[in-house]
Amino acid sequence: MLSQQSSHGKIDRSDLPDDCLFCRHPQPEYWFSKRSKHNNRPYPLFRCSNCGGAFVFPVPSEQELHEFYTSPQSALELSLRADDPLDQYKQAVQEEVEFPNSTVDAKRIAETLKSLAPGTRALDVGSGYGFFSRALLDAGFSVDAIELGEASRKIHARMTGFEPKAEPFDADFARRNSGSYDAILLSQVLEHLPMDADPIGSLHVLLRKNGVCAIAIPHFRSYLSMLQGKDDMFISPPEHLNYFTVKSLDEAFASRGFQAIKFETVSRFDYRKFKRRFGALSPVPSLALKGFLGVSSLMDKGMFINGYFRKL
């Protein structure tokens, strides 16, 4: 078969992946094309019959992604409703007070990393506002961080006392910092990275012997993801390129020189959204969703995967 049908026409064979980008199983199947709300372009998605993961293919170029994430129109930068860096910092802190999210996950992940890592030098990749870097510092790590978003770097500096480097996470960065870290944290980052550039291989290069990597990502095939299907809120190319199951994440790291230590799934939802939508009726859908997400996490089908991997 030389082509596959998509929602916007035919996909030429040259645009078909030979292998799964995660587990390298041959001939992943075309799933559907998702039109981006950012640039109105359709992005083809493929699913793997072996590991269950899905991914965008062809993978956007590094230049396209760099321009997308450094643009003032990027999703993270647009979430800031103020221009002054101090006001942006106060806004980020207030959002976390009203809906504890990053601080909860950061403390748990940092403490787990501390119990697993062979030393105390850590790297926070895509460090955002700095909640995770701060948790790593509180856990006793010496922390480096990289972040492309300018506003996020300024907030991070106020949050932690140091500003992240404005460097992309790529093979060149890994080569220049080879064997430098005992622990590396990527929270809500790996789903954004082009897998054809082998970011997991770069993690292996950066870590010292027996170093540990912590990954937090949306859980493709969580109960909520399965319920939403193609309308999964995390299917948002080119922002998200990779959609991992626990199996696909495990096999992606195993095939690149890592051993899985621990997996858990958690769920987070901002229930204020229900209040804005349903008003006085908001407690009813809120309680229903809380129960659903609670059961999901107990069954290892929560919204997000937390995985820990040791360099062999």
Automatic annotation (TrEMBL):
GO biological process, one term: methylation
Any one GO molecular function term: methyltransferase activity
Alphabetic keyword roster: Methyltransferase, Transferase
Gene3D superfamilies given in the database record: Vaccinia Virus protein VP39 (3.40.50.150)
SUPFAM superfamilies hit by this protein: S-adenosyl-L-methionine-dependent methyltransferases
Pfam families listed in its UniProt record: Methyltransf_23
Protein name: Class I SAM-dependent methyltransferase
Organism: Bradyrhizobium betae
